[in-house]
Hints:
Largest sheet: 3 strands, antiparallel
Amino acid sequence: MDTKFVPQYSLDDIYISPFSEKRVYNSETGKAEYIPLERNLNPTGVKVMDDFIRYISENSNFSRKAFCNRHGIVSSDLTALCRILTGMNAEELYYAIRLRLINDLLRYTNLTPTEVAKRSGANTHQNLCLIIRSEYGCSPRTRRLRIQSKGDAGRYRV
C-alpha cells in the first residue's frame, strides 16, 4: 500500500482571480471591449475551505483569528484542513495566494504599487516592497517589467 500523501488541490486549482472582466477585440470595429469573466468562487466544494479562499482573496485586512471565530473553528482545525487539501498550512496558503495576487495585479494592470499593496493585502507600498524584494530580489517596478509582456497591461479589469 502506497501511503505517500498527495494534496487534492494545487494553488492553480483553488486560486480565485481578482479580475471580473477580460479585454477582447471586436472583430467588426477592431476596438477593445471588456466582457465579464466567469470565476469559480467555490473551487473545492468544501464550504469552510472555499470561504477561507474567498476571505483571503477579498479581504486586504486578513485575520485568521477573525475568520476562525466567524466559522466557530479553531486555528489548528483550519491549518489541518488546508494541509490536507493543498499540502500547505493556513499561513503558507495565505502567503501563496497573496503572492499570486500581487503578481497578477502587477502583470495585468497599470495599478500603482500603492494600489497593488492595498488590493493584495500588503496594505502599504513599503510592505509590498519588502515582500517583492524578499521573494524576487527586486522592486515592484522591476518585478512588473520582468513579468509583463506586451499587451498584458489592461488585459483584465479588477
